[in-house]
Amino acid sequence: MSILAGKKIIVTGVANKKSIAWGCAKAITDQGGEVIYTYQNERMKKNLLKLIPAEAFTVELDVSSDDSLAAAFTAIKEKYGQIDGLVHSIAYANKEELSGNVTDITREGFSLAQDISSYSLLAITKYALPVLKAGSSIVTMTYMGSERSIPNYNMMGIAKASLEAEVRYLATELAPKGIRVNAISAGAIKTLAVTGVKDYQSLLSLSEERTPDKVSVTIDEVGNSCAFLLSSLAGGIIGDIIYVDKGVHLS
Ligand SMILES: NC(=O)c1ccc[n+]([C@@H]2O[C@H](COP(=O)([O-])OP(=O)(O)OC[C@H]3O[C@@H](n4cnc5c(N)ncnc54)[C@H](O)[C@@H]3O)[C@@H](O)[C@H]2O)c1
Fold this sequence. Notes:
By secondary structure, the protein is of the alpha/beta class.
């Protein structure tokens, strides 16, 4: 059964083949969906083009710029008219804000991390609304550092708490339009983003140690859960944070 047959879904955040978004894009494709790829800048575009088929649609989308968001959604509307879903898989914080003490977080560093990692979900949803069909689904990526104090995750934990609150408010606002919003709380995976966290090797090994079967979650497993949440099979799931972490959150 192809649970996303005929669906057109935007996937943000493919930086390389280790990206969680790449796991999502592969699962969507496997389930019969068509992926609309967005990339942050020309450098990311180069990496992206190495992974995807030549005929795939790509468009630049930098969430820090309203002009970029507007241009991207104009291009998507022209090409597709309406679409069926959106994967938000974007985060950024300065390295200084991912180590040491939270009392050292600067006003600028706080604003930057919140803007890119949290506000971006509200922003992209606002621009996506005119093209999202009733029955569509939005999925974002979060991490357990939102609710627990994880060494060095610091600013990103604060941004993820904000992101998760957005999921609940957006879900409430958009459910009457037939649009579901949910988050996946993924387990720790070695990606470009994670390497920004000081002593990230400890984060990864501690996380693996805490899985009941001692095997960390993969981007393919996160991607499959994302495909499910994007599909009508998940019609009853609204405003939730679904753990896809191989049980790390249990202990
Ligand atoms: N890797 C993990 O352990 C883990 C665990 C839970 C949640 N997450 C979350 O998953 C998401 C994806 O991260 P990842 O781990 O796959 O790392 P990644 O580095 O592969 O992806 C991060 C993406 O964010 C994009 N991005 C950053 N600033 C942007 C901007 N201004 N405009 C548009 N895109 C921008 C980058 O281009 C990149 O593609 C993030 O939200 C991250 O916090 C990661």
